[in-house]
Write a structure and sequence with these properties.
Helix content is 75%, strand content 0%. With 84 residues, the chain is mostly helical. It has one domain. 4% of the residues are buried. The structure holds zinc ion (ZN). Zinc ion binds next to α2.
C-alpha cells in the first residue's frame, strides 16, 4: 500500500517536472518567434500579440503547477516515513 503511494507520488512529481519543462520550452519558443518575427520588431503585430497572450497563459499554468509541488523529501526520508 505504502509502496503504491510512493510510486504514484513519484509519478506525480515526474509528471509535474515534465509539464513545467514543457511549458518553459513552449514559452521560450514563442519568445523566439516574437524576436524573429518578419512582420514586426517589437511584438506589436497581431501574431505577436497572440503569442504574448499564449506566453502569459503558459506562465499562469506554470505558477499553478508549481504551486501544487510538495517539498521533496531528502533521500531516506521517504523510506523512514513509509516504515513508521
Ligand atoms: Zn510580430
Amino acid at each position: 500500500m505504502a509502496e503504491a503511494e510512493d510510486i504514484s507520488l513519484n509519478m506525480i512529481t515526474r509528471t509535474r517536472r515534465v509539464v513545467l519543462e514543457a511549458l518553459d520550452v513552449a514559452a521560450d519558443y514563442r519568445r523566439d518567434r516574437i524576436e524573429t518575427c518578419p512582420d514586426c520588431r517589437d511584438g506589436t503585430c497581431p501574431d505577436c500579440v497572440w503569442r504574448l497572450q499564449v506566453i502569459a497563459e503558459y506562465e499562469r499554468a506554470t505558477e499553478v503547477v508549481a504551486a501544487t509541488a510538495q517539498p521533496e523529501p531528502a533521500p531516506g526520508e521517504a523510506q523512514r516515513e513509509a516504515a513508521s
